[in-house]
Inverse folding.
């Protein structure tokens, strides 16, 4: 069976709970003890659909969202995460007008032995399905090994075993025994995001069939510990051998097969294949899976946003019936009863919502133009605008958005360049995934739609997975007049010219060779971004010393862009800590927003930024041709942060833009004693 995009065999779907039901009907018992778990944040950013997740004894791949639908259909209702602003962006990027945001299928258990939530979970398949016996080096497919999982509370004991392993030649005791098997670690990937098993049989026989056996006995021999592909594949039937290092290097493309266009998470192939060159990639490689995500801090909705969201709910609930009932409000209310709450709306307000819901969708050309011109900053602009408003009263709590703000007075000892401080006592952050890439991150492929691997086989997906994080934070705003004046001064310096040239070199060398032409300067962040980014990092380091959270649990949200059409200039930051699997955090961070404490934190952070244990090398670091690093006076000893904290992978950092260092007087905060 095939759909518009993929060749897919629907006769053998990934349906673990359905398989269990069928076995139960036949009176067969099968041990289905738990083999692993993951937190929502890790399943979104590290081990999402199409990624490879390490379990203690083998590896698995979460499947595409089509297979998750079978899990959700076991429930009467499907929960949704309400974030209209993020939902509209996700719909735009996925080119699907009805996409909803859903959480991961999970439910907490009341007791450790109870069954609540046993019918929920993320479906996954064992991948790769070539395994190597640790006792005799036998290389075989999954069906050649036995699966063992006998202990319901020891997930680490679930494993695949070679039932009659006799060990290697030269072993003293070569009696048959059960020995564990581990995943064969080599895979093939292409720049279009396809992933495939490595063809070991074809590899060792150089594209031919084995001369001595229809199903040859293969072995993977790996006696050395080194970098790269150190193993050798041997055919025990005909005696041929071939080292895996021939699959690496400049001539690897001549030795490897062309891409078949396989998406194992979808159990599907691209029609006609892919045809691009493949690359050898290891199971645990860091460039195997890069998620493409979008996130927002949920803000109180405006009247226009509420009206648009209501119209959207009506449109989805009625579908084709909207045109039939739009002029009969009495019947319309009856049809919407239980689906959309319109009981509190007047007839005039309901009519307005229905008219808005009945508006024709944008044409394909208009949609593509919106995608082409869409800027990720557009998600940040409404947050910045709302944070410019003073909270209503000493402590303003918005129940619908979950946002609680308190305005803080500015302490006499606080730097005058900081003009506004808000204590964000409660916040809700929603994150959604729209796809992923392999080999190159999304910002390295020119945002090409064809490089974004879909999460479903459907052309127009109905939903995508999202998470809700709840926590707290501190918002700081810088003096816009001072920032603009400082920024103009930086543009005319040799230091900024050096950073811009380094960015061009970095872009040209590391930008994907399959991407369209993009002007490197359009991806270079302005000086104010470097300033705000560096300030956020030094504050995270200082806050972590006293707030009770580790530096890795604090994250930044940067509002730094010059004035443009439709948006005012911004220069501010939000440092927050959030948790995706609890009701919130402990309040230790927001306590440091109190005037006297914050003044001390900022003063200490700026003072620490003037010194680094790697100075003077760090303080004078400026990229020169052929160097292409994207930071200046910043290193892991002074300003760099963990990958969980930084939204730019420690790029666009320079302490010289923050404070005056020896030989430089470009610091926004000037000389700090």
């Amino acid at each position: 069976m095939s759909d518009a995009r993929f060749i897919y065999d629907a006769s053998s779907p990934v349906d673990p709970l359905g398989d269990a039901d069928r076995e139960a009907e036949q009176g067969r018992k099968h041990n289905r003890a738990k083999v692993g778990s993951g937190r929502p944040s890790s399943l979104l950013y590290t081990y999402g659909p199409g990624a490879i997740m390490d379990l203690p004894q083998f590896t698995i791949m979460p499947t595409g969202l089509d297979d998750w639908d079978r899990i959700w259909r076991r429930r009467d209702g499907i929960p949704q995460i309400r974030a209209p602003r993020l939902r509209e962006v996700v719909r735009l990027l996925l080119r699907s007008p009805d996409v909803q945001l859903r959480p991961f299928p999970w439910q907490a258990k009341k007791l450790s032995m109870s069954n609540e939530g046993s019918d929920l979970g993320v479906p996954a398949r064992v991948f790769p399905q070539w395994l190597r016996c640790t006792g005799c080096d036998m290389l075989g497919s999954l069906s050649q090994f036995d699966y063992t999982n006998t202990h319901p509370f020891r997930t680490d004991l679930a494993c695949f075993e070679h039932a009659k392993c006799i060990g290697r030649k030269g072993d003293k005791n070569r009696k048959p025994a059960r020995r564990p098997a581990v995943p064969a670690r080599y895979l093939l990937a292409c720049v279009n995001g396809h992933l495939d098993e490595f063809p070991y049989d074809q590899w060792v026989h150089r594209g031919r069939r084995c001369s001595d056996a229809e199903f040859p006995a293969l072995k993977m021999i790996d006696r050395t510990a080194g970098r790269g592909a150190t193993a050798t594949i041997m055919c025990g039937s005909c005696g041929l051998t071939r080292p895996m290092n021939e699959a690496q290097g400049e001539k690897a493309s001549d030795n490897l097969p062309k891409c078949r266009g396989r998406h194992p998470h979808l159990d599907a192939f691209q029609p006609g294949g892919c045809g691009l060159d493949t690359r050898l990639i290891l199971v645990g490689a860091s460039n195997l899976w890069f998620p493409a995500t979008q996130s927002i801090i949920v803000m109180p909705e405006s009247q226009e946003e509420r009206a648009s969201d209501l119209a959207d709910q009506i449109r989805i609930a009625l579908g084709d019936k909207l045109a039939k009932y739009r002029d009969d409000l009495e019947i319309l209310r009856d049809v919407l009863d239980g689906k959309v709450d319109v009981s509190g709306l007047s007839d005039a307000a309901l009519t307005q919502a229905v008219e808005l819901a009945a508006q024709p969708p944008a044409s394909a050309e208009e949609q593509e133009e919106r995608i082409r011109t869409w800027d990720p900053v557009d998600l940040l602009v409404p947050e910045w605008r709302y944070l410019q408003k003073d909270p209503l009263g000493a402590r303003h709590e918005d129940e619908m958005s979950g946002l609680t703000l308190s305005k803080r007075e500015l302490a006499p000892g606080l730097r005058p360049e900081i003009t506004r401080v808000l204590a964000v006592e409660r916040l809700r952050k929603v994150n959604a995934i729209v796809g992923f890439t392999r080999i190159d991150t999304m910002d390295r492929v020119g945002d090409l739609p064809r490089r974004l691997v879909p999460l479903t086989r459907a052309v127009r997906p109905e939903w995508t997975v999202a998470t809700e994080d709840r926590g707290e934070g501190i918002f700081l705003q810088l003096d816009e007049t001072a920032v603009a004046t400082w920024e103009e001064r930086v543009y005319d310096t040799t230091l900024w010219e050096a950073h811009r040239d380094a960015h061009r070199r970095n872009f040209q060398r590391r930008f994907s060779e399959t991407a369209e032409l993009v002007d490197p300067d359009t991806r270079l962040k302005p000086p104010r971004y470097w300033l705000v980014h560096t300030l956020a990092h030094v504050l995270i380091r200082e806050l972590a010393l006293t707030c009770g959270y580790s530096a890795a649990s604090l994250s930044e949200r940067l509002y730094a862009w010059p004035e443009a059409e439709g948006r005012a200039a911004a220069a501010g930051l939000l440092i927050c800590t959030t948790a995706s699997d609890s009701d919130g955090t402990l309040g230790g961070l927001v306590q440091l927003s109190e005037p006297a404490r914050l003044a001390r934190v900022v003063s200490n952070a700026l003072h620490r930024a003037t010194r680094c244990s790697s100075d003077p090398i760090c303080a004078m670091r400026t990229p020169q041709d052929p160097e292409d690093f994207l930071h200046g006076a910043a290193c892991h000893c002074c300003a760099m942060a963990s990958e969980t904290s930084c939204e730019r992978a420690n790029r666009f950092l320079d302490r010289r833009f923050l404070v005056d260092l020896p030989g430089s007087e470009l610091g926004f905060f000037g000389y700090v004693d």
